[in-house]
Amino acid sequence: MATAMFQGGAGLGLRVVSTAQRVTCVARPKSARIVPRPAKKEVQLNSLAPVAALAAINPLADFLQDGCGYLGWRIRLSDSAEEVAVAQDLHPKLAIGMTLFFALGGLGGSMSVLMQGKSLWSSSHFTTAVIGLILLALQGMTSAFFEDDPSARGIHAYLGSAILALFLYHGTLGLQLGLSL
User: Fold this and answer.
1) What's the confidence (pLDDT) of residue 111?
2) Which ranges does the record mark as transmembrane (predicted)?
């Protein structure tokens, strides 16, 4: 820190304090060669973390999918009014949760495929996921017509069963994909 003393006209001392910091040049001259730094250890995509995540997440997806399908068929086939009421309460909640869970999983899976430098549409796992999510959206829309069209319930139920079969195939493709990494 630099200090300077000045005398004023009336004998007052004026003190100026300079707190200038040293300036370091951050730009390199054009003639200087940039020496590359050694690369840090890269994170492998097929490390234990994704495997552990899949092992933890897939049972939840299976529970949501199977539970939703089971409750939907209990609504159609049960003779117990109490069981139907419980299933009618839980079925839409599980269906929305399952759809959101699958959509978020699809985002993560898409990022994984892109980080591997592969095309999304070249993966049959991705293709079945997109088809499944579109069918889930269409199936969800059929519930809006339950009051007007009695056949809408049947379409909803059988389309849901077909979607469950598609997602079983999707799971098989995902397992093959995961084991190939």
Assistant:
1) 81
2) 94-114, 126-146, 158-179
Count of structural domains, the chain = 1
C-alpha 123/C-alpha 177 separation (Å) is: 9
In a domain, 67, yes or no: yes
Cα 5 to Cα 70: distance, rounded to the nearest angstrom: 88
Enumerate residue ranges in the chain where pLDDT < 50. Answer: 1-7, 42-43
Q: Which two three-digit tokens encode residue 136? A: 């889930």
Rounded distance, CA 49 to CA 51, Å?
5
pTM of structure: 0.64
How many C-alpha atoms does 25 have within 13 Å on its Cβ side? 3
18 strand-pairing partners: 2
**88 Cβ contact list (under 8 Å, min separation 6):** 75
Partners of 56 in beta bridges: none
CA Rg value for the chain: 32
- Using one digit for the tens of pLDDT, what is the confidence trace for 89-98? 999 898 888 8
Query: What are the pLDDT digits (tens) for 57-77?
Result: 666 777 778 888 888 889 888
Contact present, 126 and 118 (Cβ < 8 Å): no
Tokens standing for 124?
């049959």
108: number of Cβ within 10 Å: 12
Q: Is residue 142 part of a domain?
A: yes
